[in-house]
């Protein structure tokens, strides 16, 4: 009977640990969702201050060159938003790939020096204005 009791205690502990992991994993997801909603709201507010909401559709598809706010919205703010989303997704993907390949949960592009090397390549290419169609893209590699 001691063996049976020990097995049931171990299975209960394992089950308890598993339930604990599920509970702990919900909080980061809720935090991430809250941060995402806050970022969307701040973007909405920023865009509303820069341009009235009634002009957003025209500014996105065919900005009027006489209205400077629409030109800034179309050629400055929307590209910045798109690039920031793409760069964030790219850095997240690279971080996951590094963690999986190196089997190290702390590995990320900044700790391994990869991000710094890419920044150096982009800086050198930008400062020296090296000609070429894809020079800037390949300099980050």
UniProtKB/TrEMBL annotation:
Pfam families in the record: FecCD
Single GO MF descriptor: transmembrane transporter activity
Predominant subcellular localization, coarse grouping: membrane
InterPro entries recorded: ABC_BtuC-like, ABC_transptr_permease_BtuC
Statement: the UniProt record of this protein carries the keyword Membrane: yes
Top-level taxon in the UniProt lineage: Bacteria
Location of the protein in the cell: Cell membrane
Keywords of the record: Cell membrane, Membrane, Transmembrane, Transmembrane helix, Transport
Membrane topology per record: Multi-pass membrane protein
TM stretches of this protein: 29-47, 81-98
GO cellular component, one term: plasma membrane
Family label: Belongs to the binding-protein-dependent transport system permease family. FecCD subfamily.
Protein name in the entry: Fe(3+)-hydroxamate ABC transporter permease FhuB
Upper lineage: Bacteria, Pseudomonadati, Pseudomonadota, Gammaproteobacteria, Enterobacterales
